[in-house]
Write a structure and sequence with these properties.
Keywords: Membrane, Transmembrane, Transmembrane helix. This protein is mainly alpha-helical and 287 residues long. It is 79% helix and 0% strand. The chain has one domain (2-196, 207-284).
């Protein structure tokens, strides 16, 4: 019971940190090329992760863990950041944030496939209901906004769910912060090369908010958030704690409205409140 409670606390901290990712990315892509933003944030976080591993004198992961670490890297280090950065050229962060409501379902599905978890049938009812509400929003609003943006966001959700589940499974053996650090280090050589390749000719037009946003997605979204998130998933269960992601749209919409002055429509709020209610039922029947 204590471990499950600790898992939910760590997971909630991770969700709160991740809630600022899409608004920060929205600001950053106004000044940086999406590909440069993706590889630069990964390179910065990778250097920090390498420093942490060296300071802690962590042993190298076993050879058998490299495939899992590669999946984590492809999902959360490259795939999700790149696809969301591309999507945010077509849709607002407020619009894209609602798609995060699909992440719990994607994470739970991969938790079953990769983590061997077996939630009860009632769990899937609540999880599917929350996801259906988000999908309904996309059908009503997304197609009129940008089919390309919505397709990119859906792709981001799939690869992110896989990366979350795989990282959580590996965290049970390696530890939460170690998993994200090793995944970042594994991708660091390529990310550094691509950062140099996509290096802009000039940074003269980059605003201070864009620099702050780059710092946020590099330090918090790519590293610190995962320290809490992977620990929470490993302690409380992938499917169970993963439902906390249903709260992320609520925090994200608040940030989009207050910091970016983006419009938050009544239907966005309605969908957000509805999916938040689903987390209560899903948590009850997660195990």
């Amino acid at each position: 019971m204590e471990q499950a409670r600790s898992g939910w606390i760590n997971g909630l901290i991770g969700v709160i940190i991740f809630s600022g990712s899409l608004p920060a990315t929205r600001v950053a892509v106004a000044a940086f090329d999406p590909v440069f933003l993706t590889v630069a944030r990964a390179a910065i976080a990778g250097i920090l992760g390498l420093a942490l591993l060296l300071l802690a004198r962590e042993r190298r992961p076993a050879r058998g863990d490299l495939v899992s670490l590669a999946i984590v890297a492809l999902g959360v280090v490259v795939g999700f950041p790149l696809l969301t950065a591309l999507a945010l050229q077509y849709v607002t962060s407020a619009h894209s944030i609602v798609f995060i409501g699909l992440l719990p379902l994607a994470t739970a599905i991969f938790g079953v496939i990769r983590g061997g978890e077996r939630p009860r049938a009632a769990f899937w009812v609540f999880s599917l209901l929350g996801s259906a509400l988000v999908a309904g929003f996309a059908l009503v609003q997304g197609l009129t906004a940008s089919p390309v943006g919505d397709a990119l966001m859906l792709g981001a959700i799939v690869v992110c769910g896989l990366g979350y589940a795989e990282g959580a499974r590996l965290s049970r053996r390696l530890g939460g912060w170690q998993v994200i650090c090793w995944a970042l280090v594994l991708s660091l050589p390529l990310m550094l090369l691509l950062t140099l390749f996509y290096w802009p000719a000039s940074f003269a037009d980059v605003t201070l908010p864009a620099w702050f946003s780059l710092a946020y997605v590099s330090l918090f979204s790519m590293l610190i958030g995962f320290v809490f998130w992977y620990r929470g998933l490993a302690q409380g269960g992938i499917a169970s704690v993963g439902q906390l992601q249903l709260l992320q749209p609520f925090f994200g919409l608040a940030l989009a409205a207050t910091l970016l002055r983006e419009e938050v429509t009544p239907i966005m709020l309605l969908v957000t409140v509805a999916v938040i209610l689903c987390v209560v039922g899903a948590r009850r029947f997660a195990r």
